[in-house]
Amino acid sequence: MAIHVQTRVNGQATEFLCEADASALDVLRDTLGLTGSKEGCNSGDCGACSVLLDGTLVCACLVLGAELEGRELLTIEGVAPPGGLHPVQQKLLEHNAMQCGICIPGIVVAAKALLDRDPDPDETTVRFALAGNLCRCTGYDKIIRAVLDAAAAMREGAGVRA
Amino acid sequence: MGVQAYRAPRSIPEAVSLLSSEAGAFALGGGTDLLVQQRSGARQPGSFIDLKRIPGMLGIEQLPSLWRIGAATACGEVASHPGLRSELPGLVEAAGLIGSKQVQGRASLGGNLCNASPAADSVPALVANRAVLVVAGPEGERRIAAECLTLGPGRTVLGRGEFVCAIEIPRPAARQSDAYLRFIPRTEMDIAVVGAAASLRVDEGGRCIAARIALGAVAPTVLTSPEADAALTGSMLEPEAIAACVAIAQAACSPISDRRGTAEFRRHVAGVLLRRVILAASQRLAKEG
Fold first, then answer.
1. Helices (H) and strands (E) in chain B — how many of each?
2. Chain A: residue nearest B45 by CA?
3. What number is the ipTM of this complex?
């Protein structure tokens, strides 16, 4: 039996119907058409579906759609306005820090969550903060450097570019 | 059949009633174990009873004599709580080791207990600190010691309609501290091969007046040993006393061999980690002065 859910996604009031066992990731991708969050493992291991649920970093695959009632969700689509870039995205581009790219939406959201609470992390902190985001292409090094560079840019006033 | 319903009760009696009356009703906390088990077919819930909308299930409260942690409180919240960090650093260490930041944002302390994995990181730290679980059920509320919850891997003493609603941890006395360590083959995102916790209390002269150790992943349930505790009590935590405690605890281990490590390896690592957590807790006491 479908459940009616009212929530906010990327600042916008949103409502949808979902089954009891549908994940928030299923709802985002299949019902709301927000396909930026990727499905890698569907078991909370890979981080490709990282989103912020009421400001807390979580895997959308481990949240039920029904649980979103009355909550606030931020996805990769909401980190910058359409066509704009978050400093983390900008630096990932500048550092050529992506190859196949499927992990990148999750990395951007996880890195944003880190930099929102810790504007000046050291390399070890960034590596631990992104330990839940698997990347099978890059070897992580460029990603870590891009996030550290984004942190530095944000400390100097860089913001989301429209 | 599949999952037929999702319900989010707003009170404990409502949750107890749903868990008792609906066939296949499963309590849902953070979902990091249950949703994975449901998808793999390891568990087949008929309905999810989400406990997170019940007042008191979320949040950390400092009371005069104890910490009260709502059972659905996420481990990440426990790991970043300044008050817990200063009073129960070992518990904070354990909670901060569970999964990634993403998993910590959801995985609950109560779920880590009730999933009943022998390798659960928070459990040795809770047991060493004499945590008590507040259990709600059809017969009302009861309290059980944390080490009495599990019967074996995946099995608990909870009856139909019962769930853990809060975890109560006595606040440490003066000159009391704790520590937790685990061994995994890498630095993050793995399951403990062995976990070890210790809570120590010393008198003004540095003599140990209370000790409690707990080991994870070396037996079907968390391992405690009053004999190993007794080897520390009354000592100055000198190397001989620690060695005696470690030897008793190692002898009490009954680990399995699996792809994470042989029984022999686990027993060895249990000794190494136990020695280290005793030293870590005593160093914290020394700093406290």
1. 11, 14
2. A21
3. 0.96
